[in-house]
Amino acid sequence: MTQTYDLILRGGTVVLPWGMEATEVGVRAGRIAAIGDLRLATAAEVIDCTGLHVLPGLIDSHVHLREPGDPAVETIETGTRAAVLGGITTVFDMPNTNPSITNREKLDWKRDFVAGRAWTDIGFYVGAAKSNIAELAALEAEPNVCGVKVFAGSSTGDLLVEDDASLEAVMRSGRRRISYHSEDEYRLQARKGAYTTGMPHRMHAEWRDVECAFLGTRRLMAIARKTGRPAHILHVSTAEELAYLKDYRDVCTVEVLLNHLTQTDEAYDRLGGYAVMNPPIRDARHMAAAWEAVANGTVDSIGSDHAPHSRASKEKPWPECGAGLTGVQTLVPVMLDHVSAGRLSLPRLVDLLNAGPARVFGLVGKGRLAAGYDADFTLVDMKKTRSIEESWIASPCGWTPFAGHRCTGWPVMTIIRGQAVMREDAVLGAPIGTPARFAP
Ligand SMILES: O=C1C[C@@H](C(=O)O)NC(=O)N1
């Protein structure tokens, strides 16, 4: 009997969990139905993937879509539009909005709000505050909540939980999905007075220094050992933390960022405020350690920490300029360029941008190119060379720290649950993104 599918991806090299294979993928009702030789099958639509690699839909597990907040900078619609243009099929949205997402009412608002506005599927972070610790366990268990975000060091927004007792209470409230911004707030505040307006932007990395990050992470690991609860340490940025965390793999998972893998402190001279983020871009020794950690398995996921700020804010003198860089649209092209340069393999990249975040956060129905999983795909052309231009950036803030960055390897098509939502720079159809689901 002839098998029929809604969609067949034909002629590409498919990145499967066990490696790359020239094979075909059949999709039915939004899910992967078959992988193999489908020449005898029929389909409503066949996409010719000749010359392309077929990747499972890539996940950016660290984005700030800023809604509610400042639509002139970013919205759920524009940020997820940027994501699909950059080959991303699912994003996890951070809670440090204005106001922050810290209770059920605000979470429910956001979950309802994304319908008809999100181009990607979307997981929701809930923010920890000293006032909502008792509610966190219930919020973390919500099926569309990817996790709880804890700012143990202050950054953009009003969320902060910095003392040991509160951090321990937060950690005890969660089962698996608590993520930490790890910088030591006491050291941050103690050193603040030494810096004055108008100092060079590179002072950002001196203020928020290696010890600041290391002390934050050491504090969290001590609490994780004491409580036996796991901690996802976001944007680990120093060689010292990465070496230390190797001995804590039983209680931690680790994220590194695109920027820390790609930019060093020379960026402050070139980009000024457009290089300022928390934790900061550091010198080449730390970048080398981040790559070593990608290679030796210490790293579980890579995120962009897409954090738009207005040009007016970025052009203020340091330290008043906003801290945070756009990245959801450039994550895949820049990482593909790293693949082309031989810094990691395509299957390892897929592990870090698909299987890894799915494993860390307990994402349901995604995280594997296998039968039964959602038919989310990122089609990439590894031969395509193209420069990132600001005119391509969909976020209303309109800038990228990678302007002019030349990439070999580019996402040419984004497919979500069997529907093409981006092809060659064109966003297609309507925003079909739905709340992602997470294991309790
Ligand atoms: O922790 C953060 C927050 C983010 C933002 O702007 O929201 N920007 C950053 O650079 N780091």
Quick structural gist:
This protein is of the alpha/beta class. Helices cover 30% and strands 25% of the residues. α4 links the parallel β11 (145-151) and β12 (178-181).
Which helices and strands, and how do they pair?
Elements: E1 4-10, E2 13-16, E3 19-22, E4 24-28, E5 31-36, E6 42-48, E7 53-56, E8 58-63, H1 76-85, E9 88-93, H2 104-113, E10 121-127, H3 133-140, E11 145-151, H4 164-173, E12 178-181, H5 185-192, H6 203-207, H7 210-227, E13 231-233, H8 239-245, E14 252-257, H9 258-262, H10 266-271, H11 284-296, E15 301-303, H12 311-314, H13 331-340, H14 346-361, E16 377-387, E17 406-416, E18 419-423, E19 426-427
Helix pairs in contact: 3-4, 4-7, 7-8, 8-11
The chain binds (4S)-2,6-dioxohexahydropyrimidine-4-carboxylic acid.
The site of (4S)-2,6-dioxohexahydropyrimidine-4-carboxylic acid has 11 residues, from loops.
